Amino acid sequence: MAGMQPRNSKTFQVVTKRDLATLPHLAGLPEEERLAMQAVAEVLPFRVNRYVIDELIDWDRIPEDPIFQLTFPQPGMLTTRDRAHMVDLLRRGASHDGLAAAALEIRRRLNPHPAGQKTLNVPRLDGRALPGLQHKYAETVLFFPSQGQTCHAYCTYCFRWPQFVGLDEERFAASETDDLIGYLRAHPEVSNVLITGGDPLVMRTTLLRRYVEPLLAADLPNLRSIRIGSKALAYWPHRFLGDRDADDLMRLFEEIVAAGKHLAVMAHYSHPRELSTPSSQAALARVRATGATVRCQAPLIRHVNDDADAWAQLWRDEVRHGAVPYYMFIERDTGAQHYFAVPLARALDIFNDAYRQVSGLARTVRGPSMSTTPGKITIDGVAQVGRRKAFVLRFLQARNPEWVRQPFFARFDPNASWLHDLVPLDGGRFFFEQGRGWRDQLRVLDGQEQPVMGAS
């Protein structure tokens, strides 16, 4: 690819905000733009690696290149006022503490934990909160191993950015599996565990085994599936190929399958270029050879993949290499949403245009979907209801299982980008906000509101 500067990208090397000022790839950008990027990196997390830099980014196309937008801080990710403030501090040589205080103040205004992650999703066992777990939907528990709370590279849009900026009180992390196993025993409705982060595959396999093997050894007949959420197939495929414990990782995957558990690697491919390199394709093939299923998901992101042809190509490539297109998400209402968000109406057009281009094998994908406080809501279409134009919406998953697949309507708004921007068609309240709505599905345990499925 034009503009690439190939190196030995098989050795994992990290680039962080300390390297922005000296990275030669950025030398062609105006000084003001580079300083603005540095200002953003003081507030939001930045981490990339040599594989992404050398093999995925087309440096002749920056700053418009989609993978550059996906991984490097962009000036527009902060509001004009906040960016100017941080740039001024950098110019004046502010102290580390001064920069950190200003960054913290901005972060607090960026909705660090959307959709009730901290207030509604943390379950309890024997009266204790379990901060390394989340339980939002009856069948699925999320588990955050403490050593897996980073990534091979950070996506600029990531809704879990608070995990990576040193705010310990905002992090989800568990150091062992005893509570997880106890919680699964107490909740037979849970059939699958999603090991997530960060990215659990940043861990050495010996560490990952410490979390996985107790699940396989425990007597948990309700546990049928183990999911591993990871961007490693896109950002560091050598994790599955040439890393010193890549073979052991593949053996662990085989052991999960041999134990009778369905293993799903939840791969995050945001753009077809991430699946275009020989190493990424070989890594995907090797994971599939273990018996694991690879399901692919990503949000629709302005400046990165807000293009129907790109999505259609991505879904075709995923199917061609044996993976399953799974979700197109809407960018969550956190972090730099103002920069990355695509209006719901345009998101629907992009999804539909891409969907029409692919065969039934790729139409396993669902979307565009919002992961909101009450649940995952997909936009099925736009309809004329009487004299009004309306979004047709539906729950794919919900805190209250009775809401799943229930259609409802919202007034069409070409500028709306999230559920809170929508108004019910009749001007009242959505059905899940009425009567025994989602707020009424909560219990008070130990003086704190908890979701019903989080009770013990």
Question: How are the secondary structure elements laid out?
Answer:
Blueprint: E1 14-16, H1 31-43, E2 47-49, H2 50-56, H3 66-71, H4 80-91, H5 96-108, E3 124-125, E4 128-129, E5 133-137, E6 140-143, H6 178-186, E7 192-195, H7 205-217, E8 225-230, H8 232-235, H9 246-258, E9 262-267, H10 278-289, E10 293-300, H11 308-320, E11 324-330, H12 337-340, H13 344-356, E12 366-371, E13 375-385, E14 388-398, E15 407-411, E16 442-445, E17 448-451
Parallel strand pairs: 6-7, 7-8, 8-9, 9-10, 10-11, 11-12
Antiparallel strand pairs: 1-2, 3-4, 5-6, 12-13, 13-14, 14-15, 16-17
CATH homologous superfamily classification of the largest domain: Aldolase class I
In DSSP terms (H or I, runs of 4 or more residues), the helix count works out at 13
Strand order of the largest sheet: 5-6-7-8-9-10-11-12-13-14-15
The strand count comes to: 17
Instruction: Tell me the number of structural domains.
Output: 2
Overall radius of gyration: 22 Å
Helix content: 25-40%
CATH class of the largest domain: Alpha Beta
- Characterize the largest beta sheet: strand count, sense, and whether it forms a barrel: 11 strands, mixed
Low-confidence stretches: 1-7, 436-456
Mean pLDDT: 89
CATH fold-level name of the largest domain: TIM Barrel
What order do the helices and strands follow? Answer: EHEHHHHEEEEHEHEHHEHEHEHHEEEEEE
Morphology call: globular
CATH arch. level architecture of the largest domain: Alpha-Beta Barrel
Structural class: alpha/beta
Please report the distance between the alpha carbons of the first and last residues. 55 Å
Estimate what percentage of residues fall within beta strands. Answer: 15-25%
